[in-house]
Amino acid sequence: MAKKVGLFTGLIIFILGIGFAGAFNVGLSKTNEMDFCTSCHSMKINLEEYKETVHYKSTSGVRATCSDCHVPQPFVPKMVAKVVAAKDVYHEIMGTIDTPEKYEAYRWQMATAVWQKLKASDSRECRTCHDYDQMLLDEQDRMARKKHSAAVDKGQTCIDCHKGIAHEEPDEPDDWDEENAPVHWTVKITNWFAHIDN
User: Residue 65: how many CB atoms within 10 A of its CB?
Assistant: First the structure.
């Protein structure tokens, strides 16, 4: 009798585990969709800017969505990004950037945090689609070929040159000191996990 109860309990736990894993996977997938990302009122500004970029309008039919640039693919960094993104829900509820004026006031801070994260991960999310080693430099125009070759030689990463590629690049504040710039707290957290590949 005890053996049957143990077997039944094990089966229930197994089924619940599969159900949890499935629900977890669906939740992750749904929160990576552009409709989810732009469902908050404050992200409508980003959406309109993004629609005017090459990442949205592509002659090849390939479109990079919010999660392609903002959510790492490796599991641990992805989970860290999802947890850190909870701050965005808080700020949406608090109305921190719920008007164009408030959004503009925080634009530099938000952009800098994203740039710092991309720099720390060697532009990992960019490299999901773009790779120096796969570039056909001979087919690029002279300026792009020269800059990409120099970037490789200098050990630069995508975000060093391509800020403002998917959203309007904000004006740098007059009092900004790049050398002594504070590192945003979300960047400190994600930097701990920046180079984990799985």
Answer: 17
Compute the Cα dihedral for 52, 63, 80, 38 and give only its sign.
positive
- Please report whether residue 177 resides in a domain: yes
Q: How far apart are CA 67 and CA 125, in angstroms?
A: 9
Q: Answer whether residue 17 shows pLDDT above 90.
A: yes
In a domain, residue 134? The reply is: yes
* Average pLDDT over every residue of 118-130: 91
Number of Cβ within 10 Å of residue 33's Cβ equals 13
In a domain, 3, yes or no: no
DSSP structure string for 64-102: --HHHHHS-SSHHHHHHHHHHTHHHHHHHHHTTT-SHHH
Q: Please check whether residue 107 is in contact with residue 51, taking contact to mean a CB–CB distance below 8 angstroms.
A: no
Domain interval for residue 47: 31-192
Q: Note the pTM of the prediction, 2 decimals.
A: 0.80
Rounded Cα distance between 157 and 84, Å, is: 23
Q: How many structural domains are present in the chain?
A: 1
Local confidence band at 183 (pLDDT 50, 70, 90 cut-offs): low
Structure tokens that stand for 38 in this block: 């732009």
94 part of a folded domain: yes
Instruction: Give the span between the Cα atoms of 48 and 41, in whole angstroms.
Output: 12
Confidence of residue 96 (pLDDT cuts 50, 70, 90): confident
